[in-house]
Amino acid sequence: MDNKDKTIIRVGLGTCGISAGANDVYDAFKEAIAGTNLTLEYTSCNGMCFREPIVDIILKDRIISLSNVSCGEVPRLINEILNNKIIDSEDNDFLVMQNRIVLENCGHINPDKIDDYLAKEGYQALKKILLDILPEQVISEVKSSGLRGRGGAGFPTGLKWELARNSKSNEKYVICNADEGDPGAFMDRAVIEGDPHRVLEGLAISGYAIGAKYGYVYVRAEYPLAVKRIKQAIEDAQNRNLLGNNILGLGFNFFIKVKEGAGAFVCGEETALIASIEGKRGMPTLKPPYPAESGLWGYPTNINNVETLAAIPWIIRHGADKYANFGAEKSKGTKVFSLAGQISKGGLVEVEIGMSLRKIIYEIGAGTSSGKPVKAVQLGGPSGGCLPESMLDTPVDYESLLAKGAIMGSGGIVVMDVDTCMVDIARYFLAFTQKESCGKCTFCRLGTKRMLEILERITLGEGRESDVESLIDLASKIGASSLCQLGKTAPNPVLSTLKYFKDEYIEHIVNKKCRARSCKGLINYKITNKCIGCHLCTKACPAKAINGEIKEKHQIIPDLCIKCGICESVCKFEAIYHE
Amino acid sequence: MSKATINGITNDFVDGISILEAAKSLGIEIPTLCHIENLEAFGSCGICVVEIKNQNKVVPACATKLLEGMDIETHNDSILSTRKMLLELLFSDHLGDCVPPCSLKGCPANINIQGFLDLESKGKYNEAAALIREKAPLPNILGRICPKPCEKVCLRNRVDEPVMIGVQKRYIAEKEWSSGGPFFPHRAKSSHKRVAIIGAGPAGITAAYYLSLNGHSVVIYEKQAKLGGMMRFGIPKYRLPEDVIDTELNAIVDKLNIDVSYNVEVGKDIDVEEIISKFDAVVFSHGSQLSNKMNVDGEHHEKVIKAVDFLYKLAINIDVNLGKDVVIIGGGHTAMDAARSAARLGSNVTLMYRRSEKEMPAKDEIKEAKDEGVVFEFLVAPERIKRKGGKLYLHCIRMILGEPDESGRRKPIPNSNSRFVLEVDNIISAVGQFTDNSWLPSSWLSEKGHLQVNPSTYQIQNSSGHNNIFAMGDAVTGPDLVVTAVAAGRKVAASVNQLFLGSAVTGEEPVYASTCGELNDLPQEMFSKAKKIARANIPLIDKDIRLTSFNQIEESLNEEEFREESLRCLKCGCVAQNDCKLREYGYNYKADTKKFAGEKRKYEKDFSHLDIKLEIDKCISCGSCVRVCESIKKYYIFGYINRGFTSKIKPEFNRRLIDTKCDACGKCCEVCPTAGVWKHG
Ligand SMILES: Cc1cc2nc3c(=O)[nH]c(=O)nc-3n(C[C@H](O)[C@H](O)[C@H](O)COP(=O)(O)O)c2cc1C
Ligand code: SF4
Ligand code: SF4
Ligand code: FES
Fold first, then answer.
1. Nearest CA in chain B to A442
2. CATH topology identical between A114-324 and A334-417
3. Is the pLDDT of residue B395 over 70?
4. How far is A161 from A301, CA to CA, in rounded Å?
5. Is residue B50 pLDDT above 90, yes or no?
6. What is the whole-number distance in angstroms between the Cα of residue B87 and the centre of ligand 3?
7. Which residues in chain A have their CB less than 8 angstroms from residue B46's CB?
8. For residues A437 and A478, is the Cβ–Cβ distance under 8 A?
């Protein structure tokens, strides 16, 4: 920020802010500041999605953060700013417990201004290694930081680089995986939209370390803003000779291209991603060979996730030891989680690995949005698992989660309160993976479909006694014999819910009961003797499933009822209930 | 070289080979569906999975390099059950009939109907007859008397009317006979094994036929003076002329050197024990000739006759004097035969059945019987028979239909205020038959006196340690169709043959096939392209002649008419039925083709191209066609579309094959494990 005395109004223009109306707010400010000495600026998402649109007022001495700003408020706010009456609406608990490394600049800098990044020590790490650190030393630094891949599998990053470095070839590639297909995960989007240069810097460092001249950023096509900002960033970096030939005159050549994803979840899987860059259908191939031996166009290739790469500049600048100070025994550093579901304060949180789920949910996320008790947490997206409330004290690290039947995955945390049906949740996630199966291997293509059909019939109240056994049999074979991780992990939500919530399955199948009352097939609406025959429900029923003479007790025809519950809500005499 | 262990055998293997190749070098066969020799492994199908014990991993053998120290198991229980499930999953999304339903579900003898119709349409009558004889050695007889369960499930029912199947067998046989037939395959060289068959009905003759062809020497013991059992003594001549029986059956016993001892009643003229001691195997097929009682008062009167006796007398040309008014009681084919025979003797005939027309087993002949003057009284049962003067008074009661009983048919219940009396001259009872087993060792029989046989091998159970005693046909099942007895005869022959060859006696393997579903559940698209062609009608002889003689009532069609009829066949069987890895493995791994019932791919064919045919509904998405076309021809004709369950392999961009540059090289057809893509001709 060049002018230190000026008051700056900074609007958060990340995808989340924009969908909450931030563009209009920005325009409203633009109009309103005409003739004042206020400056308007934008940044990207800072992770507090529950507060969007967010507007920061940067005063001489402090920053005031405003939440949920609407266009209508803008004239009043301008007035308050000009008259020094503006008050902070931020509640700090959300940020206090976080340790922001990857997200350090998000929400603070203008992502489209390379100078903003440079002002935050941007590209210093790249410069540092090019000046006097050998690739092998970079690798050993990353190794001793304990950084593990944030794309899901948690493979040690330094080791991966070493494998790619040791593959003999005149040509090598590095790829940044920004396909982010897990429903509900958006940390990679936030980083690219909010701090794109950090990712480029990390990618360039990985290129230097393994000996690659070319890098790709494979971005999900459904992220147009991220695509635009990363492209802009590449252009700006090239113009400053931070990318391209002979970077900073230090003899390293490195070029980055952007490739927009093919819109399929499985394209995030590294071998499918490579196929997709090569112009083929995004379909996984068998490993080995791993990309480190034979990747893009058959050359050794290193693929890292956005968040992994975004941690690299910080590690180089601050040293591996400092990074390794954070985190748990075997999982060092910080991890960004997307907190979603029935949670009061949903958004992105970056915390030390090893923090307990309970802390994340209650102290950062402020508990459930309904105020009801938590029932379970789904971790790691559709290939992850569900943990029950009783396990909320589990530290969130790779090993502890795996031991309990969940995974860290890309960092999705979906909170569910007691009104959630666990069978239906398993069905929901499996429906996602089934739809996204690439169709190549039999177990994934057809096995998940048959599992899904079983879950569907259970939630419709048509479950059979043998269903649990069939699910387990299918799950174990799909898990063991699918070709790629998508298929191998697809049964996880079913297996983990079966592990912790088997009672609910049995209730659905045997007692035809859904305790969360969310499976419509198992709900029956009934009319009691309180009915006075007022006809209100008859008129309201969209399925014309209620009949009865006026002033006489009405009846619901079960075969026609679509279980929408409208009748229950319109009845003024509490004569309709469901069971 | 790398040292590794496969199924307990430790060996040195060439570096860099796959587990599949390594296993093969030890003679261990691992199944594959997507593996293509000389192309890079793909790993899509998953059937080749093996377990690396010391890594606790399951991997595809085709795509995994064998490494030093691996301890691999290729056929352990968990791998076998994985492969079985995998095949069941593939079947669950495979819409195809390996074998046409007429043959699989219709014909009890599984005659290759599509095959013989095709040969017939080409004028290859001898070949057609030979094909029928692979499953049933009595084409001419069956062509006349079989009630044609095949036609009921013929898919052409969904287009217009079923293909005429039954009568064609008769025509084929006649054509063959007129060129010197019947012709039989060569007998195998003598096995020096001897088998006795008790009873020369359809089951016994059929068993004799196949056993003799296999080189065994056969002796038939027959109580009557002629061959045929119920075919001769139960079925009236207007349906099955005697000379047809003589020609067809005599040819079998004469040409195949089958010894028949006529007029010998086993159990009376010769001991059962004696026969058992003299032969290497004994087959009981003595039929089911004793009549059930009606259980009504007065049924023992001499003018109340049993249908079986009545028909027997007609068969051996003994005069039967029936009065003017005759009532037949019963609804099966025997009742029908008795009614129509009585009509031919000039009586006024009423057939009385206690259920409705819909439930009547012999309903296929109702129309013809009515033409011949038979009057039907449905939902009526006899209660008692009285006699006064020279007349019989049949007291009857009307019935109403209640809930379905164990047979699935609705149970008749008497309606107590609907009694009436008929004045008649004779009553013929045809309410079922049972088997006379009184002469057999009692240990072989159940409490009710039935023979107990193993349902797959037909060996008699409890035959005190004997594994070489068999029984079949009506003797075991009670009265059933001739074609069912023929099927049983063939299956028993298979068991006996296994016994004689010294292999395990497991019986004939049932036909293993994938099916598209039941006739009425099939999607209409399956039939949208079939043109309607009216079915021919077999003319019947003049009604006057029918009413005064026992002449065969069905006439015939000419060659051209039969040919056109055989061309109506929709050819529902799969082109790859004998060359399909899915079917082969499914059979080997005992995969239940219906294990996972759920959403299935839709009926979808692309027959646009003259030579290369695509049956997308049979594709198992192995990807082989995509890969050969891509790597050998560089044409990229096939590709994947969609994702998840709906993903399919089809010509890229959803084109029809004719709109691609496919030059019909046929490489894809060579690698396709099913009939997903095949070459015409
Ligand atoms: C079905 C599937 C989807 C995946 N999607 C992503 C993704 O969207 N982003 C990502 O970084 N990694 C994804 N991965 C993981 C990648 O295959 C790979 O492990 C990762 O990009 C490696 O980077 P890391 O070592 O930095 O984690 C996915 C894996 C699978 C099996
Ligand atoms: S596991 Fe699923 S996504 Fe992976 S290769 Fe098989 S079909 Fe494709
Ligand atoms: S059509 Fe192609 S993909 Fe389908 S089964 Fe045949 S070879 Fe495999
Ligand atoms: S996966 Fe090995 S043969 Fe198909």
1. B45
2. no
3. yes
4. 9
5. yes
6. 15
7. 441-443, 481-483
8. no
Residue B620 contacts A, CB cutoff 8 Å: yes
Q: State residue A91's pLDDT score.
A: 65
Atom number in ligand 4 closest to CA B44:
1
Question: For the segment A24-56, what is each residue's pLDDT rounded down to a tens digit?
Answer: 999 999 999 998 989 999 999 889 988 999 999
Q: Does B106 touch chain A (CB under 8 A)?
A: no
User: Could A481 and B598 be called an inter-chain contact, meaning their C-beta atoms sit closer than 8 Å?
Assistant: no
How is B298-316 classified by DSSP, letter by letter? TTTSTTEEEHHHHHHHHHT
Residue A50: count other Cβ atoms within 10 Å of its Cβ: 20
* Complex confidence, ipTM: 0.90
CATH assignment, A524-578: 3.30.70.20
Mean pLDDT of chain A: 94
Fold of A114-324: Rossmann fold (3.40.50)
The reported pLDDT for the residue numbered B562 is: 96
Amino acid at A531: C
Q: How far is B313 from chain A (nearest CA, A)?
A: 58
Architecture of the domain whose range is A3-90: 3-Layer(aba) Sandwich (3.40)
Q: In angstroms, what separates the C-alpha of B423 from chain A's closest C-alpha?
A: 55
Most A CBs within 10 Å: which of B44, B90, B589, as the mutation test of the A interface? B44
Q: Parallel, antiparallel, or unpaired for β B426-429 and B304-306?
A: parallel
Phi, psi (5° rounding) for residue B662?
Answer: -50, 125
Q: What is the dihedral of CA B382, B386, B392, B395, to 10 degrees?
A: -30
Provide the pLDDT for residue A1.
42
Class of the domain covering A422-511: mainly alpha
Per-residue pLDDT tens over the stretch A367-397: 999 999 999 999 998 999 999 999 999 999 9
Partner residue facing A449 (CB), from B45, B85, B598 = B598
- pLDDT tens per residue, range B5-27: 999 999 999 999 999 999 999 99
User: pLDDT by residue (tens digit) across B54-98?
Assistant: 999 999 999 999 999 999 999 999 999 999 999 999 999 999 999
Put simply, the answer to whether B640 touches A438 (Cβ < 8 Å) is yes
Residue-range domain boundaries for chain A: 3-90, 114-324, 334-417, 422-511, 524-578
Per-residue pLDDT tens digits for A319-345 = 999 999 999 989 999 999 999 999 999
> Tell me, which fold does domain A334-417 have in CATH?
Ubiquitin-like (UB roll) (3.10.20)
Q: Which atom of ligand 4 is found nearest the CA of B622?
A: 4
Which string of DSSP letters, residue by residue, matches B160-198?
SS----HHHHHHHHHHHHHTT----PPPPPP---EEEEE
CB pair distance less than 8 Å for A437 and B46 = no
DSSP-based three-state secondary structure for B248: helix
